[in-house]
């Protein structure tokens, strides 16, 4: 972290003034090294290689031998051991006698927090600092790019005496830059780790940088979890034409906002049906599974599985929503059958982007606890709830509460299931 910057500082220091500096920026091999050495004019040599792990073995071995014979001093920067593909040319230097190593670690979260406080002139919200630390990896150059090149500094606002990123309501287009991919990846990672506050700050930062479309599915579902269904629809309507219809999780977010936020389940079902017909049989099946689940939750489907009998079950997310729909439709009349479907759904939701939005598995867990209680299997329900209903970080409890409130099914009860409204 900051190796090149440190190297450049060293080369203009008073200690370097007594050396003839010879830089090897491109893998040169023994011949190339020999061609550069006469430039020294009899002065002490400082042989410099930046990012030595990108060089070739011949160059580094030749430079090492020159140093062993006292012909010069070798100054290199290299990536930490184990972070580059093998074989690493710099390995030939790691065990040299009399070497001196300077390890420059990434900035810690506390250091990023302190630096941001200096930039904005006050204390920064923990989730905001976490977001930028996650996106930059503590790399000062990347952090500078995010704050400077993306001009994020002007998008800080003060709320409850803490600085955070301004809220966003519409998509903002922008040119593609490496920093945008960093924000997008960090937001997605935080989302699937159920670090909701960090994910939200990363999404806001990404939108202000012009990467709203890249994080749109995450932001839309985060707004749903916060009960801001109106903002969901405004944001989705601002996205480029057909983006929502052709992106499954955006289509799901819009349907949920229509069905549970505006109380228009028929409009949600019609939207998903049209989107499914546009997508064709295989991808369209997921939209029909979303539709069936919304029908079951709102009590509009006869058995919670209308139109899903022939769906492609190889898609895990489709299968999870199919089982969730059937469980929702049967939990009152046949809780044992609901337990079967919910356990099948959880078995499919072992993580990853193909297992549905990350709120799905916690929500299904809460529903399963309810179904077990209704089926008279209180021991299993208590065991399942022991590490869930207490609200441990990352357990998904808060997510299950939010989805249950959104769908109008009340809040999870004290045993861990969902308490009816």
Automatic annotation (TrEMBL):
SUPFAM superfamilies registered for this protein in UniProt: P-loop containing nucleoside triphosphate hydrolases
Top-rank lineage group of the source organism: Bacteria
InterPro entries xref list: P-loop_NTPase
Protein name, entry field: LuxR family transcriptional regulator
Native organism: Sphaerisporangium siamense
Taxonomic placement: Bacteria, Bacillati, Actinomycetota, Actinomycetes, Streptosporangiales
């Amino acid at each position: 972290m900051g190796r090149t910057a440190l190297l450049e500082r060293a080369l203009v220091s008073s200690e370097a003034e007594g050396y003839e500096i010879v830089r090897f920026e491109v893998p040169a091999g023994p011949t190339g090294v020999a061609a550069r050495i006469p430039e020294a004019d009899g002065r002490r040599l400082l042989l410099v290689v930046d990012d030595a792990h990108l060089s070739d073995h011949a160059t580094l071995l030749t430079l090492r031998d020159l140093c062993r014979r006292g012909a010069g001093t070798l100054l290199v920067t290299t990536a930490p051991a184990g972070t580059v593909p093998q074989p690493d040319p710099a390995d030939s230097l790691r065990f040299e006698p009399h070497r001196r190593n300077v390890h420059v670690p990434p900035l810690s979260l506390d250091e990023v927090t302190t630096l941001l406080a200096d930039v904005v002139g006050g204390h920064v919200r923990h989730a905001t600092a976490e977001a930028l630390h996650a996106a930059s990896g503590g790399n000062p150059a990347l952090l500078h790019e995010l704050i400077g090149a993306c001009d994020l500094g002007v998008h800080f606002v003060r709320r409850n005496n803490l600085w955070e990123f301004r809220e966003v309501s519409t998509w903002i287009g922008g040119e593609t830059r490496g920093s945008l991919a960093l924000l997008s990846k960090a937001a997605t990672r935080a989302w699937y780790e159920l670090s909701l506050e960090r994910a939200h700050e990363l999404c806001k930062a990404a939108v202000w940088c012009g990467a709203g479309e890249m994080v749109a599915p995450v932001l839309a579902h985060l707004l749903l979890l916060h009960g801001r269904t109106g903002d969901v629809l405004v944001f989705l309507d601002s996205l480029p034409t057909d983006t929502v219809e052709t992106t499954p999780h955006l289509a799901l977010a819009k349907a949920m906002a229509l069905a549970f936020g505006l109380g228009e389940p028929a409009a949600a079902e019609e939207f998903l049906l049209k989107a499914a017909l546009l997508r064709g049989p295989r991808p369209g099946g997921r939209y029909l599974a979303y539709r069936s689940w919304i029908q079951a939750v709102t009590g509009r489907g006869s058995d919670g599985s209308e139109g899903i009998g022939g769906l492609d079950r190889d898609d895990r997310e489709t299968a999870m929503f199919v089982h969730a729909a059937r469980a929702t439709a049967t939990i009152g009349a046949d809780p044992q059958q609901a337990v079967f479907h919910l356990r099948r759904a959880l078995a499919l939701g072992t993580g990853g982007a193909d297992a549905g939005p990350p709120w799905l598995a916690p929500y299904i867990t809460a529903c399963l606890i309810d179904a077990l209680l209704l089926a008279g299997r209180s021991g299993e329900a208590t065991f399942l709830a022991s590490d869930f209903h207490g609200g441990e970080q990352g357990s998904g409890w808060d997510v299950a509460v939010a989805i249950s409130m959104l769908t109008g099914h009340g809040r999870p009860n004290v045993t861990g299931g969902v308490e009816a409204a």
